[in-house]
Amino acid sequence: MNDASKSFSGLLTRRAAEIEAVLDRLLSPNCSGEEITRPPKLLAAMRHGVLNGGKRIRPFLVIEAARIFDADMKAALATGAALELIHCYSLIHDDLPAMDDDDLRRGKPTVHIAFDEATAILAGDSLLTLAFDVLARPQSGLDDGRKAALVLGLAQAAGIGGMAGGQILDLDAESSAPDEASIIRLQSMKTGALLRYACEAGAIVGNAAEKERDRLKRFGEIIGLAFQLADDLLDVTSDASQMGKATGKDAARGKGTLVGLNGVDWARNRLDGLVGEACALLESFGDRADVLRQTAIFIARRES
């Protein structure tokens, strides 16, 4: 690992710790606002599904995109935490027997294994709604216009035309043979929508101009494609101990992926191309976007 890689790895670890601290506070036993009580079992399941490590790449993107515009760090952290709550809710539900039926997540029992299916469903539901609570809170430090833009963007990224819609397309792909365009569409929804939102949300927090916001949104779209392609590649080339979850499941289910369609060598070449496209979009930001450039490279070359 060279010095630049070590520096980036250290920053990723520090940001993950900062987000973890915010998430820990959000998931404390203390009620917020008009809440009546926080049932201990439900709270424990939510904490199990959220406070279990992970790179926190989505909030990392929010923070580093916001930093390009010298945004308030507290607002960026809160926005990143809200996005991570959505991501963790989706993982809890994805792991359910009715969906991907996984027993492991980040090397630990999934929520429905550690607790039960009903609790896992309610934990996911509660994380989903808590995310919008966090974005709407007065203490975010953002004006109402930016809060509304963040709430609207996250709702659309997570819903029928984004992550949730992509998930059902992904389930349908197990019983059909989707072509390349169909695979790209479902992946841009299931995985890419939240990564695209992360980059745009950072620009919103930073009060960026519309042109800059659009540029970061497009950057997020491209690294979203790279993230899923790298994930599908790892599903073929890695093992469960390396990934912290079961691997080889896509092929076992006959699920259509770009790796399965075009092969490993094609996927690696395509990842290089996507990194080039993503970095080109950041040229106008100069040195301020160095961390985002490194993030694009990290996403494409990650090993877990």
TrEMBL record:
Listed A to Z, the keywords are: Isoprene biosynthesis, Magnesium, Metal-binding, Transferase
Pfam families xref list: polyprenyl_synt
- Quote one Gene Ontology molecular function term: metal ion binding
InterPro entries in the record: Isoprenoid_synthase_dom_sf (IPR008949), Polyprenyl_synt (IPR000092), Polyprenyl_synt_CS (IPR033749), Prenyl_diphosphate_synthase (IPR053378)
Q: Which cofactor does it need?
A: Mg(2+)
In terms of NCBIfam families, this protein maps to: FPPsyn
Q: What is this protein called?
A: Probable farnesyl diphosphate synthase
